[in-house]
Design a protein that fits this description.
By secondary structure, the chain is of the alpha/beta class. α2 runs parallel beside α8. The longest helix has 22 residues. The chain is elongated and about 85 Å long. The two termini are 51 Å apart.
């Protein structure tokens, strides 16, 4: 299988000044054509570090893609390193890139300087892929097997994310023309409500039975739950899809209603689909989640067909005066309780006239907890024509992650309760 390494160049990445989004974008693009990314690296703006990193990447993988280290300033170091690494003897001017640079500068009302012209100069042993929306050209180098033990292609791309993304199809086309590529096929099963460690133990026997060319990855996320990605390598499309379907079906059978979907779906999308199927509507009454459930629901285009509104009842007066929660219930059981959250769900459903409702009350943190109700405690409720269902959980994380997990857990409680016919 053809392998790849991705290298980001620049001190600004290493000090956390900017976030590296190029690596993730390139990895997805390479994966789609059957190139397996086996290594990612970041290095500083120094000749030695860049040279050592690139040599290491060339020895371990077939394709190497770098981003950054190019520009009309003194940090244009990558080009010099690549000149030495490729055995080039001189720089030549890429006429196509020079013309693009002139047009870009003219359109911006900027005078062409020598430092701008120099960006069109490339090592004589490289093939230029013109950067049609930026000034730094994409440089492609071929390293024969005797140099690093592989038939290597190296691409040097600009660090500006939108320029990298725009040029990626040209890089991908070049890779496809150079290598005979195997396909990689994926299938992702989305689960919610089972911790990664518990999930791993639950499917241990099934996982041990997977053939050598079929791999499983655990992808936990506070909103999405734990996604299980199955990947199969070195097979035909028909065989790959059949194998993935066979093993995903047996996995779903083990996990039951913990599975809420496949691929890129999420709890809010699934909730919306269930509501549309039933021509139903929903509302939310949120305390600790502060409107985050409403935010997730309204992220989905067309959610106005089923989502009617939300009451963010952060203060007890709103719970009592707007949602109709009994003050004595709060005094007896506390705000974070089964009894209060049930009344919140029933109150907002009645107030807004929706088919279903979701309510939350909890302690997101970092303060406010007690021995009986520690930080991270959530009570949630879902209500519908058949009744009200409540549940609780404790999430020991940061305030932000607690809120995200609370909201997603409430949506998942709605899904399970609706499918089981409890509400």
């Amino acid at each position: 299988m053809t392998t790849a390494s991705i290298c980001t160049i620049g001190d600004e990445i290493l000090i956390g000044q900017i976030t590296d989004t190029n690596s993730a974008f390139l990895a997805k693009a390479l994966n789609k054509i059957g190139v397996k990314v086996i290594h990612m690296a970041s290095c500083s703006d120094s000749d030695k570090d860049i040279a050592n990193t690139l040599k290491r990447c060339l020895k371990m993988s077939d394709v190497v893609i770098t981003t950054g280290g190019l520009g009309p300033t003194k940090d244009d170091i990558t080009k010099r390193v690549l000149m030495r690494l490729s055995g080039s003897t001189r720089f030549r001017t890429s006429r196509k890139q020079l013309e693009i640079i002139k047009n870009i500068l003219t359109s911006r009302g900027i005078q062409m300087l020598d430092i701008n012209r120099m960006q069109a100069d490339v090592p004589d042993r490289c093939t230029v892929i013109p950067n049609r929306i930026g000034t730094a050209p994409i440089m492609q180098f071929h390293f024969p097997e005797e140099m690093f033990g592989r038939n290597n292609l190296l691409f040097s791309m600009p660090g500006v994310p939108f320029e990298t993304e725009f040029a990626t199809p040209d890089v991908i086309a070049s890779i496809q023309a150079h290598y005979k590529l195997d396909k990689i096929f994926h299938k992702t099963i989305c689960t919610f409500g089972i911790a990664e460690s518990v999930l791993s133990k639950q499917i241990e026997e099934w996982e041990n039975s997977l053939p050598e060319n079929l791999h499983l990855a655990y992808l936990p996320n506070p909103i999405l739950g734990v996604r299980l990605r199955l990947s199969i390598y070195g097979t035909t499309q028909k065989e790959g899809e059949e194998e993935l379907e066979k093993y995903s079906a047996s996995l779903k059978k083990i996990l039951g209603d913990a599975v809420y979907g496949e691929g890129e779906t999420n709890p809010q999308t699934v909730a919306g689909e269930l509501l549309l199927e039933r021509n139903a509507t929903i509302s939310t009454a949120e305390s600790c989640t502060g409107g985050y459930i409403a935010h997730l629901l309204t992220e989905i285009a067309g959610s106005s067909r089923y989502f009617w509104g939300s009451v963010v009842s952060y203060d007890n007066s709103v719970k009592i005066n707007t949602l109709g929660v009994n003050q004595k219930t709060i005094e007896k059981h506390g705000v974070v309780s089964k009894e209060v959250v049930a009344q919140m769900a029933e109150g907002v459903r009645k107030k807004l006239g929706t088919t279903y409702s979701i309510a939350t009350s909890g302690i997101a943190g970092p303060g406010g907890g007690t021995p009986a109700k520690p930080v991270g405690t959530l009570w949630m409720a879902v209500s519908g024509p058949k009744g009200t269902v409540t549940a609780t959980l404790v999430s020991k994380s940061t305030r932000k992650i607690n809120i995200e997990r609370f909201a997603a857990s409430a949506l998942d409680l709605f899904r399970r309760s609706l499918i089981s016919g409890k509400i």
